C-alpha cells in the first residue's frame, strides 16, 4: 500500500460512518468498484497525469459509475478530488476492508502449497486456523511449486512456513552462522 499513511484517516472515517449506519458491506462494494476503476490501465495513466485536474478525473469517475454514484459516494469523491487524493482510492479500499474484517473478527489466509489441495483439506485448514487465531478464516489456495513440498500459510502479518524450501532456507541460515 503505497499511500497507506494518507489513506488511513479517510478509511477510518468511512468505516466509522459505515459502522454507524450499518452499511459496511455497501461501502465495501462501492470502494471495490472505485478501486477497480482507478486501477484500470487507462485510468491509472489519467489519474497520474498532472495536466488533468481532479475535477476532470472526478467527472470521468461519475460517468463510469452512472446511477451508482449516491450522494455519499459523490461527497467522498469530491473530497478526494479537492485534495488531489483520487490516487489513494485503492489504499482506502484495502484499509477499509481490513477494518471491516477486524471488526467482524474475520481474516483472510493464503495457503501456499507445492501441490493442489482438496476442498476438504482447505476446509480443515480454515477450521484449524480459525481455532488458532480466534477469527473466522477464509482461505485462498495458491499452488507454488517453488515450495518443493509442504505448505506456507499467511494470516494477517503472520507466516507459518512448513515447506521444504522454508526448512532448507532456515538450515542454510544456521549453517552460515
UniProtKB/TrEMBL annotation:
Domain of life where this protein originates: Bacteria
Keyword Membrane: yes
A Pfam short name: OSCP
HAMAP family: ATP_synth_delta_bact
GO molecular function terms noted in the UniProt entry: proton-transporting ATP synthase activity, rotational mechanism
InterPro entries: ATP_synth_OSCP/delta_N_sf, ATPase_OSCP/dsu
Function: F(1)F(0) ATP synthase produces ATP from ADP in the presence of a proton or sodium gradient. F-type ATPases consist of two structural domains, F(1) containing the extramembraneous catalytic core and F(0) containing the membrane proton channel, linked together by a central stalk and a peripheral stalk. During catalysis, ATP synthesis in the catalytic domain of F(1) is coupled via a rotary mechanism of the central stalk subunits to proton translocation. This protein is part of the stalk that links CF(0) to CF(1). It either transmits conformational changes from CF(0) to CF(1) or is implicated in proton conduction.
One of the record's GO cellular component terms: plasma membrane
Protein's cellular compartments: Cell membrane; Membrane
Cross-referenced PANTHER family: ATP SYNTHASE DELTA CHAIN
Membrane-related topology note: Peripheral membrane protein
Transmembrane segments: none
Family statement: Belongs to the ATPase delta chain family.
Encoding gene, per UniProt annotation: atpH
Gene3D superfamilies for this protein: N-terminal domain of the delta subunit of the F1F0-ATP synthase
Keywords: ATP synthesis, Cell membrane, CF(1), Hydrogen ion transport, Ion transport, Membrane, Transport
Protein name from the UniProt record: ATP synthase subunit delta
Organism annotation: Aquella oligotrophica
Amino acid at each position: 500500500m503505497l499511500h497507506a499513511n494518507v489513506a488511513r484517516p479517510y478509511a477510518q472515517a468511512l468505516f466509522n460512518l459505515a459502522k454507524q449506519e450499518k452499511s459496511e458491506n455497501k461501502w465495501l462494494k462501492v470502494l471495490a468498484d472505485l478501486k477497480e476503476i482507478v486501477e484500470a490501465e487507462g485510468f491509472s495513466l489519467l489519474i497520474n497525469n498532472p495536466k488533468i485536474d481532479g475535477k476532470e478525473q472526478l467527472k470521468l469517475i461519475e460517468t463510469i459509475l452512472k446511477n451508482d454514484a449516491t450522494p455519499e459516494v459523490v461527497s467522498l469523491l469530491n473530497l478526494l478530488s479537492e485534495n488531489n487524493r483520487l490516487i489513494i482510492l485503492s489504499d482506502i479500499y484495502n484499509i477499509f476492508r481490513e477494518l471491516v474484517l477486524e471488526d467482524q473478527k474475520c481474516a483472510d489466509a493464503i495457503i501456499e502449497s507445492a501441490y493442489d489441495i482438496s476442498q476438504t483439506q482447505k476446509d480443515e485448514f480454515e477450521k484449524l486456523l480459525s481455532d488458532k487465531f480466534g477469527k473466522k478464516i477464509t482461505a485462498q489456495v495458491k499452488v507454488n511449486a517453488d515450495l518443493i513440498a509442504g505448505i506456507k500459510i499467511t494470516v494477517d502479518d503472520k507466516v507459518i512456513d512448513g515447506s521444504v524450501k522454508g526448512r532448507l532456507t532456515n538450515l542454510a541460515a544456521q549453517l552460515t552462522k
